[in-house]
UniProtKB/TrEMBL annotation:
InterPro entries on file: Cu_amine_oxidase_N-reg
Bias kind Low complexity: ranges: 114-128
Protein name according to UniProt: Tat pathway signal sequence domain protein
Signal sequence bounds: 1-27
Length: 266
């Protein structure tokens, strides 16, 4: 593992999936006032205080304010609507007894999206406001979907399926990385992180993470991963913040069993 991961250190993983998920993480932002800046001292060794005072300061990126209240028609769901829809959904079976990715009470939220209007319903500004929510219950390895009518405050439809595995959420990728770091199989990842940064890797927060669902295939994995597809299993793509990729594609984390395993790469 140590040798394999290190061989890929500092290189973009060639797989198209990695290129797609990594584009946003690697995008550079050019801040105003930095191009062509001259920070050297003047010929006499003094600083150019007058020019510095007039220089354009670097831009500051601020978090977007929370969207409150109620949207209209096909407007995206506001923060208040998302919270309300989740609260209504979680008050109904089978979500009341669910378990999330780190073993806490309540199922793991995967997504909340504005629902499409039904047949014969108005579109545009007069469209009804409904939310489609998806949760994963780690207690039963079940995907639970529900639709909430935000006008009436009622959950209209709820369904449960096993063996259906949507893409992992950010929280699931984070928990998968935490399990990998704590596992003996994470030794190579930690060693390569130290090679790249000179620091110890102790937390998923030190990495940029994306992931994909792994499903078991006959003869393609050790027996410990045979339940992947019924269990929630993730393959991680890991990148040092402001640094290189570290190849962890041969490792799979079974979030349901909370175990990591290495694929046979022969």
């Amino acid at each position: 593992m140590r040798e394999t991961v290190h061989r890929h250190l500092g290189k973009l993983v060639a797989a198209a999936a990695v290129a797609a998920v990594g584009t946003a993480a690697m995008a550079a932002i050019t801040l105003p006032g930095t191009a062509g800046a001259d920070t050297s001292a003047g010929a006499s060794g003094g600083t150019r205080a007058g020019q510095d005072a007039d220089a354009v300061r670097p831009g500051v990126v601020e978090r977007a304010p929370a969207e409150r209240g109620r949207g209209t028609g096909r407007d995206p769901l506001t923060d208040d609507e998302i919270r309300r829809a989740e609260r209504i959904a979680l008050s109904r079976q089978p979500l009341t007894t669910g378990e999330n990715v780190d073993g806490g009470r309540g199922p793991q939220r995967l997504s909340v999206d504005l629902a499409e209007p039904g047949p014969g319903e108005a579109d545009g500004p007069a469209a009804p406001r409904r939310a489609d929510l998806a949760f994963y219950d780690y207690r039963t390895d079940t995907l639970v979907t529900t639709t909430v009518d935000l006008d009436t405050g009622r959950a209209e439809r709820t369904g449960a399926q096993r063996g259906v595995q949507p893409p992992p959420s950010r929280d699931e990728n984070t928990e998968a990385a935490r399990l990998l770091i704590a596992s003996p199989l994470g030794a190579g990842l930690k060693a390569d992180y130290k090679d790249a940064t000179g620091k110890e890797l102790t937390s998923p927060d030190q990495l940029l993470l994306s992931g994909g669902v792994y499903r078991a295939a006959p003869g393609a994995q050790p027996a410990v991963l045979d339940q992947c597809g019924v269990h929630r299993c993730v393959r991680l793509f890991t990148k040092v913040r402001n640094g290189p990729w570290i190849d962890t594609r041969s490792l799979v984390i079974d979030l349901s069993a909370r175990k990591a395993a290495a694929l046979d790469r022969r």
